[in-house]
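Many introductory courses stop at the sequence. We go one step further.
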Amino acid sequence: MTEFLLSVHVLVAIVTVGSITVAASMFPRIALRACGSGGDGSSAAGEGRDGRSEGTGTAVLLHRVCTGYAVAGVVVPVFGIATGAQLGVLTDAWLIVSLVLTVAAAALLGLAVLPGQRRLLALAEGAAAEEEARPVASRLSMTTGMFNVLWAVVVVLMIVRPGSTTGA
């Protein structure tokens, strides 16, 4: 049973968190480029089927990826806690720190990254100038980077398991 729980935990983490980190990292640049095109389809890339510029459409897609996988990502700590319970390591420091960092990353995603993406999308769809959107995109890039670093630390803790007595 432990192998099943751990397998689901790792697979869902790779698919969800990996997708979020890539999409969230690409988003500010793509959305800023959409602001530069005016968001009205006047860019050289042309319009998509929904009448949005292709840059704006791509930014919308990246935001949907982040939002959708954030919801699905709830499964990661659920299976992680179940795996930890099976292994008897729920009180180990490395797991507690990993859980705290996971909560921090989830809060950062839900309270800063996704709302920042929505703000930048609103600027792109409202035909804001690139200069107006640049501070929002810069702040979002920094916040997304912090989110990514939190997940990198969690991954290292999960692999190294400092102080673990279950073996490496």
